[in-house]
Amino acid sequence: LCAVRYTGVAGAPFRQEQHRRTLPPGEEETVTMAVTFAEYQPHVGDQDALKLTAAGAVKETGQVVAKELRVRLHTPELTLTLLAPAVVGQETPIQVVFQNPLPEALTGTTLRMEGAGIACPKPVSL
After folding, report:
1. Do 105 and 63 lie in a common domain?
2. CB of 29 closer than 8 Å to CB of 23
3. Where are the beta strands (DSSP E) in the chain?
4. Does the keyword Ubl conjugation feature in the UniProt annotation (predicted)?
């Protein structure tokens, strides 16, 4: 398991597991792996993905099979609600809702709104 930058460049693997199984003919087996936020957070940036590579080898024949999966980390949505009618030249109250999906508090965050008719965006520290 490693992080992949938005440019496609993969970082160094930060987790590896090895499993040996004997699999009877026609059978299948599932191997699961849970990856916590605390484990992958130090390795990913704002636009990164996680890349999981699984490879298997048949001991008797030497045949190798491999599969790669990229998991894009989704940014949580902001919900914007207009709380009063928008009138040209007047302030308009807007409610912004964001739910922190992480298992730790967010600190040093700033909300900045931009758009048509907003002359000077004012960042709001949260």
Report:
1. no
2. yes
3. 2-4, 49-57, 64-72, 79-82, 94-97, 110-111, 124-125
4. no
| Residue among 73, 41, 51, 42 at smallest CA distance from 4 | 51
Domain range for 57 is 2-72
3-state helix, strand, coil split of the chain in percent (to 5) is: 5, 25, 65
The set of residues, in sequence order, having a beta carbon less than 8 Å from that of 93 and lying 6+ positions away, is 82, 83, 84
pLDDT tens for the 126 residues of the chain, in order: 999 998 889 999 999 999 888 888 899 999 999 999 889 999 998 788 999 999 999 888 999 999 999 999 888 888 999 999 988 888 888 899 989 888 888 888 888 888 776 777 778 888
Tell me if the pTM is above 0.85. Answer: no
- Report the number of distinct structural domains present in the chain: 2
Q: Which helix or strand (DSSP H or E) is residue 40 part of?
A: helix 37-40
> Tokens in use for 103?
């298992």
